[in-house]
């Protein structure tokens, strides 16, 4: 059977993918990826295999999105979030091995049934809020919540999926806001349309409100074939509830879809809401570690790392290197500092200027340092890890390794005074080759 229709190209000469997964029917496809049902030959477990075309995502500049999706899913372990088991790769494809949700998309259930009872809708909404609240507590904002991205397992429990448009707290700019325009039109919050920056937690809550409306009504609160008319409706915040909506549900929806993000209801407030709390049982679970291994052409490329989502520091210090997924080979370094992000950028800028180098600030944070009339460029990016720690990611673009070592290691790096202390809850320095 041709690869383009049913099965991804085998990474081994055996019929099983990497000699481990028997790939079955096609479940769905998008512009850059296809999802298949598969079976783990070792234990018979059903899994979903998301096959990503490297060439397509690289050509469209979306390689960073794939890396971020892996980073995000690796830190999320929750009963109502689709689990990422492992990531495999060949020269042309990346394979996400994920939990299989036998019940399919919630969207299909709504399309078939028309609408759900208020009680069933509440159950799904409770599970959704449990998952979304957990994401936010881990510094993750989904940004594309909709019924098509909500799956059901064989017991009818909800699973949040598709973190391809998600953002992490480290992407928040100095103004405390996210600025990337994304999401599905009918579910997008009004502040995203305003293009003045937005709070990731608030836009997710808005989308949850739209989803809840759709579950109980069977149709969208804001809808129009003309996109600009649709956006005007969303911006006005005017929607009408059907007669079968209870007064308590109407009240909650008005707070979920409050056009003012400052007064919009929060997750904590939702958890205390009288309509929400009816029959609610808080999710209790043990958050396991994540064994992350990247294989290229079936050979182990990165060492396996135990990554616990409670411990973000281990994620950045473990040596986990996603650049190999796309064959990138720039030298570089990654280390942590107990410093404010803006202070690190200031140090990088001052150090470069002291050496007579050209410095350009990047909109998303960090700087580019130009050496040898532009032949060598050193990129310095800073990401907030915790309230006290930042990760400094340094990469070489162009030039040669000798020049990079001379400029970065000998002239610029000493200005950062990187600590190399013990593991007793102190800052550690971790150099990571980016090739």
Descriptive notes:
It is built from 13 helices and 19 strands. The chain is an alpha+beta fold. It has three domains: 21-99, Phosphorylase Kinase, domain 1 (2-Layer Sandwich); 104-277, Transferase(Phosphotransferase) domain 1 (Transferase(Phosphotransferase), domain 1, Orthogonal Bundle), CATH 1.10.510.10; 331-435, Kinase associated domain 1, KA1 (TATA-Binding Protein). Helix 4 (118-137) runs antiparallel to helix 6 (200-217) and helix 6 packs antiparallel against helix 8. This is non-specific serine/threonine protein kinase. Residues 302-327 form the NAF domain. One of its GO terms (molecular function) is protein serine/threonine kinase activity.
Cα(first) to Cα(last) distance is 36 Å
Low-confidence stretches: 1-6, 10-14, 289-321, 418-435
Give a count of the beta strands, DSSP E runs of length 2 or more.
Answer: 19
Question: What is the third-level CATH name, the topology of the largest domain?
Answer: Transferase(Phosphotransferase), domain 1
**Cα Rg:** 23 Å
- Tell me the structural class: alpha+beta
Structurally, how many domains make up the residues? 3
CATH class of the largest domain: Mainly Alpha
Outline, from the CA principal axes?
globular
Strand % is 15-25%
Residue-averaged pLDDT, rounded? 80
Oligomer: single chain
Q: At the fourth CATH level, what is the homologous superfamily of the largest domain?
A: Transferase(Phosphotransferase) domain 1
Largest sheet geometry: 7 strands, mixed
Tally of individual helices: 13
CATH architecture of the largest domain: Orthogonal Bundle
Strand order of the largest sheet: 1-2-3-5-4-12-13
The helix content is: 25-40%
């Amino acid at each position: 059977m041709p690869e383009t229709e049913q099965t991804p190209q085998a990474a081994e000469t055996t019929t099983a993918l990497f000699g481990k997964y028997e790939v079955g029917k096609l479940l769905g496809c998008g512009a850059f990826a296809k999802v298949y049902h598969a079976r783990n030959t070792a234990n018979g477990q059903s899994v979903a295999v998301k096959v990503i075309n490297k060439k397509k995502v690289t050509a469209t500049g979306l390689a960073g999105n794939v890396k971020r999706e892996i980073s995000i899913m690796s830190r999320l372990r929750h009963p109502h979030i689709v689990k990422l088991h492992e990531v495999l790769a060949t020269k042309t494809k990346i394979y996400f091995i994920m939990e299989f949700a036998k019940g399919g998309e919630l969207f299909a259930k709504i399309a078939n049934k028309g609408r759900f009872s208020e009680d069933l809708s509440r159950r799904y909404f409770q599970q959704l809020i449990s998952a979304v609240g957990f994401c936010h507590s881990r510094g993750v904002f989904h940004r594309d919540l909709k019924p098509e991205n909500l799956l059901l397992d064989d017991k009818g429990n909800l699973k949040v999926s598709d973190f391809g448009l998600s953002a992490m707290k480290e992407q928040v700019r100095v103004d405390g806001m996210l600025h990337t325009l994304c999401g599905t039109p009918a579910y997008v919050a009004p502040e995203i349309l305003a293009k003045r920056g937005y709070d990731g937690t608030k836009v997710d809550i808005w989308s949850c409100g739209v989803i809840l409306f759709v579950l109980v009504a069977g149709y969208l609160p804001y809808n129009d074939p003309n996109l600009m008319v649709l956006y005007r409706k969303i911006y006005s915040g005017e929607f009408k509830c059907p007669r079968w909506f209870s007064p308590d549900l109407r009240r909650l929806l008005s707070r979920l879809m409050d056009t003012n993000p400052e007064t919009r209801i929060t997750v904590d407030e939702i958890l205390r809401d009288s309509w929400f709390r009816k029959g609610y049982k808080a999710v209790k679970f043990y958050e396991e570690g994540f064994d992350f291994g990247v294989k290229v052409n079936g050979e182990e490329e990165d060492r396996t790392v135990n990554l616990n989502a409670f411990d973000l520091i281990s994620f950045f210090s473990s040596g986990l290197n996603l650049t190999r997924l796309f064959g990138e080979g720039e030298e570089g370094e990654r280390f942590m500092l107990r410093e404010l992000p803006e202070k690190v950028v200031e140090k990088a800028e001052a150090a470069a200027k002291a050496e007579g180098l050209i410095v350009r600030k990047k909109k998303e944070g960090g700087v580019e340092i130009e050496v040898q009339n532009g032949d060598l460029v050193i990129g310095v990016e800073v990401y907030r890890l915790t309230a006290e720690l930042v990760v400094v990611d340094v990469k070489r673009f162009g030039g040669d390794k000798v020049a990079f070592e001379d400029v970065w290691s000998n002239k610029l790096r000493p200005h950062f005074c990187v600590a190399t202390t013990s593991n007793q809850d102190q800052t550690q320095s971790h150099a990571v080759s980016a090739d």
